[in-house]
Design brief:
Layout: H1 13-20, E1 25-30, H2 36-50, E2 55-60, H3 63-77, E3 83-85, E4 90-92, E5 98-103, E6 120-123, H4 131-140, E7 154-159, H5 166-175, E8 187-192, H6 198-203, H7 205-212, H8 216-222, E9 253-254, E10 264-270, E11 278-284, E12 290-297, H9 311-324, E13 333-337, H10 350-355, E14 362-363, H11 368-379, E15 389-392, H12 396-401, H13 422-433, H14 444-449, E16 454-457, E17 462-465
Parallel strand pairs: 1-7, 1-8, 2-5, 2-6, 6-7, 9-15, 10-13, 12-15, 13-14
Antiparallel strand pairs: 3-4, 4-5, 10-11, 11-12, 16-17
Length: 479
């Protein structure tokens, strides 16, 4: 066969940086129209032509995305260079290199790649993948044994903020917060914006104007690649502002303190085995304000992966905690839990296991929409900047998972259950056990513009001027 050439336009500086990166895990993007898809498929085509026998897997979340973003452009790019098998979705090169294209529409789809070996794996729009899928793919990212030259396996990821995988991608590549055996030198993040993609801007100048005109939060994400602004966040009102840990105003996260002796203590529980379980402890003050003071989240170092601890062991530890912890020992603790823990169809129920250790619960109200509204009411700030729920800064699982949860695409008032929602569920059970009347959330700028500090109690239909945080009426309270 004669000499073949791959004719490609020159990459922009950010794409060139992506092409030259040699880390174990290489991430690129962060904003829309940064040239991510072009960079990924072009890099993989170059690798296949350079390294005989290399085995590459390129993934998107869905088949239509895969076809539109990669299969069709590659058919044009590699015409006369590689043969395409439509059924297997594989481009085969004369030197034995193979570029396979796949998709993972559901979490279990990733299991089809287990047991296989790919020298290179690409995850396009990585924030659309769960951390479980990412870790499964890492297991398949190893030497295929088919290459004649030395080559260290690596993974390439492109992404935008948001999506079910927002948190794990942000942790690894943006925040660079690493766990045991994760080496910082293995991870590279190359941020790219539309302004870096001059060829695209010349081709479609109106698209930049479209991005610039988006609503503020989405504009920050899509135009600027801002990972702190998650558009579509289910609990958009949740604020974690370290500068307010002491004054408790305009934030939900505060420094821990010992609850007063006369405050009631509750525990809320959502059971999980393959998925995490979540146990939260709450103190309730004289005005009905709730404080998440402690939590135990049964998660491995992989987000949304359970510890697989049997119920008996969980409640053995819970009983010890409540005997020994200075904030809990000697207190009467009332428990609320997911009603499913009373299911005894497969033997002893989770609730029965708990009761054997002196840990008792009442069934929580599992009405989802009403429950989420109760959480929203608690998180809402009044006109003075005070919410009805606070979270101690030691409650890391709440602080990590709550901001990342998204709306369900098909149930507009519900939460997307593909997210890590176990903390949210047990919070919902607790809030439903002490429901409050709705109130209108206040915004900081609106408050300062309003000298009367007006608070509207929509349950009574009256308009009242108050200068301090209004006492919220408890509709019902478990005694």
């Amino acid at each position: 066969m004669g000499r073949v050439e791959l004719n490609i336009p020159p990459p922009n500086p950010k794409q060139r940086e992506f092409f030259l990166a040699r880390a174990r895990y290489i991430a690129y993007g962060g904003a829309r129209a940064g040239g991510k898809s072009w960079a990924m498929r072009t890099k993989f085509a170059l690798l296949c032509m350079r390294y005989a026998g290399i085995q590459i897997l390129l993934l998107r979340r869905t088949l239509p995305e895969l076809t539109e973003n990669h299969v069709n452009p590659l058919l044009i790019l590699l015409r006369g260079i590689a043969r395409y098998n439509k059924q297997e979705k594989v481009f085969s090169f004369p030197n034995g290199a193979r570029l396979k294209l796949g998709y993972c529409a559901n979490e279990a789809d990733v299991l089809q790649y287990q047991g296989q070996a790919y020298d290179v794996i690409g995850m396009e729009e990585a924030t659309m993948f769960t951390e479980f899928q990412y870790n499964c793919l890492r297991e398949s990212n190893r030497s295929s044994g088919l290459m004649k030259e030395s080559f260290s396996p690596r993974m390439y990821l492109t992404m935008n903020p948001g999506g079910v995988g927002h948190h794990w991608v942000k942790r690894l590549f943006v925040d660079r917060l690493y766990k045991d055996k994760e080496r910082p030198e293995d991870y590279i993040f190359i941020p790219a914006k539309v302004y870096d993609n001059t060829a695209f801007m010349e081709r479609d100048p109106d698209y930049v104007a479209q991005l610039e005109s988006l609503p503020e939060k989405r504009r920050k994400m899509m135009l600027l690649g801002d990972w702190s602004s998650v558009e579509g966040a289910f609990f958009e009102e949740f604020v974690n502002d370290p500068s307010h840990y002491e004054d408790r105003q305009w934030t939900h996260v505060i420094a821990p303190f010992e609850p007063k002796a006369n405050w009631k203590i509750y525990r809320s529980f959502d059971f999980g085995y393959n998925k995490p379980f979540s146990m939260g402890y709450w103190a309730v003050d004289e005005e009905g304000v709730i404080y998440r003071i402690l939590e135990w989240y049964g998660c491995t170092e992989t987000d949304n992966e359970g510890l697989r601890i049997p119920p008996n062991k969980i409640f053995e530890e819970v009983a010890r905690l409540e005997r020994e912890h200075p904030w809990l020992k000697g207190r009467r603790i009332q428990g609320i839990a997911d009603p499913s823990i009373w299911d005894a169809s497969r033997g002893e129920s989770v609730a029965e296991s708990a009761s054997k250790h002196g840990i008792h619960f009442t069934p929580g109200d599992n009405e989802r929409i009403a429950g989420w509204m109760q959480v929203h009411y608690r998180l809402a700030f009044d006109e003075n900047g005070f919410p009805m729920m606070y979270v101690f800064e030691n409650c890391k699982a709440f602080i990590r998972t709550i901001p990342a949860l998204q709306y369900d695409d098909h149930k507009v008032e519900d939460l997307d259950t593909d997210g890590e929602d176990h903390v949210a569920d047990e919070v919902r059970y607790f809030c439903m056990s002490r429901p409050i009347k709705p109130r209108i959330p206040a915004k900081r700028d609106e408050y300062y513009k309003n000298p009367l500090n007006v608070y509207l109690d929509i349950s009574k239909g009256d308009l009242t001027t108050r200068t301090a945080r209004p006492r919220m009426e408890i509709i019902s309270e478990e005694e």
